[in-house]
Amino acid sequence: MARITQLLDAGPTLSFEFSAPRDAEGAERLRRTLARLSKHRPHFMSVTYGAGGTTRGPTRDWVQTIRDHFQVEAMPHLTCVAHTRDEIAAIIADYRTDGVDNILALRGDLPQSTSPLPPSGGELPQAEGGLHAFDTAAELADFIRERADWDIGVAAHPEGHPMAASVEADLTHQAAKLRRADFAITQFGFRAEYYEQFVNQLDARGVETPVIPGIMPPINVAGIERMSALNATDFPTEIRDRLEAASGAAERREIGVEVAANLGRELLELGAPGLHIYTMNFARAASEVASALGWPTD
Ligand code: FAD
């Protein structure tokens, strides 16, 4: 279908992110979500990967479904943590068979029930049945590049990665990784100034890779607080206070959509090459944000 760099050239792009559901009910809801969001004619959709391979089959299946059934370009995420070199090579070979053109190369985090990750840049635990092959997403991106002529995206962390040894080491690593990638997608955030500062810092290091900001409509205070704490994302008090003062779910959604749409507008005005909306597999808020930003439905 289409390469994301080509789509970005004609941008700004609109993209949505989903996760492979765990049960039949979740699958049914995701189908309805895809049906609604595909009406915005997004440039692409992406499907997350369960670190260690927990969604290996489902991620591949949903990527196929999005491409074949909804006629939207779909990009699989792939994490390298706890995978052997052979496993990664086999996954890439499968995607080549499927005609995939774009992939998001990530390190991933092991589930909390298993041993915690060492400080970033350190050695990761060994994969079952063989040596853990890659310590960083940058190494995974290089490995993929050697095997497939694809557009390779990576994750960006404008507010810094929570396990970074230092701000400077983190920026140096991120700049080096982005130089090896075709595009990047950021962790979600709520302040455009972090994105602006991050792209300026990359620019000062001579990195020209397009960085697509990720946005998530803040609706559920507890959920956003939990994810923000995990990612070291600043969840502004003024947004939390507004959500907590809301009279019910409908008003919380309105606030979340308004906040995300305003942020999206600011990011596009700053020159962002597109917007990547984290949907949590729910259609309504993501669709309302896209509409508010001028991406109409069919
Ligand atoms: P890396 O770039 O390898 O490293 C992360 C950080 O570690 C760096 O920013 C840096 O601070 C430090 N670091 C690494 N190597 C060095 C070095 N040599 N020197 C100094 N510092 C170093 N997780 C999933 O499990 N599945 C998904 O599908 C998924 N999708 C995501 C999509 C996006 C858009 C984003 C932003 C994140 C996603 N994640 C996903 C989460 C991601 O896996 C975690 O944030 C993980 O902790 C880091 O992954 P990374 O690819 O950025 O890692």
Commentary on this structure:
- The structure is a single chain.
- This protein has 298 residues and is α/β, with parallel strands linked by helices.
- It has a single domain, classed as Alpha-Beta Barrel (TIM Barrel).
- Helix content is 46%, strand content 14%.
- It contains eleven helices and eight strands.
- Mean pLDDT is 92; it is low at 113-124.
- Residues 48-49, 51, 77, 79, 106-109, 120-121, 136-137, 155, 157, 161, 163-165, 169-170, 173-174, 177, 185-187, 214 line the site of flavin-adenine dinucleotide.
- Residues 48-49, 51, 77, 79, 106-109, 120-121, 136-137, 155, 157, 161, 163-165, 169-170, 173-174, 177, 185-187, 214 line the site of flavin-adenine dinucleotide (FAD).
Keywords, please?
298 residues; TIM Barrel
Which helices and strands appear, and what pairs or packs with what?
Elements (H helix, E strand, L loop, with lengths): L3 H6 L3 E6 L5 H15 L5 E4 L8 H15 L3 E6 L5 H14 L3 E5 L30 H11 L3 E6 L10 H13 L3 E6 L3 H13 L6 E5 L5 H11 L5 H9 L3 H21 L4 E5 L5 H9 L6
Parallel strand pairs: 1-2, 1-8, 2-3, 3-4, 4-5, 5-6, 6-7, 7-8
Helix pairs in contact: 9-10, 10-11
The structure holds flavin-adenine dinucleotide (FAD).
The site of flavin-adenine dinucleotide has 28 residues, from strand 3, helix 6 and strand 6.
- What percent of residues are in strands? 5-15%
Secondary-structure content class: alpha/beta
> Biggest sheet, open or closed, and with what strands and sense?
8 strands, parallel, barrel
Number of strands: 8
Count of DSSP H/I helices: 11
- Point out poorly predicted stretches: 113-124
CATH class: Alpha Beta
Which fold name fills CATH's third level, the topology? TIM Barrel
Q: Roughly how many Å apart are the termini?
A: 20 Å
Order of helices and strands: HEHEHEHEHEHEHEHHHEH
List all distinct small molecules, including ions and cofactors, that are bound in this structure: flavin-adenine dinucleotide
So what's the oligomer here?
A: single chain
**Which CATH architecture?**
Alpha-Beta Barrel
What is the overall silhouette? globular
Mean pLDDT metric? 92
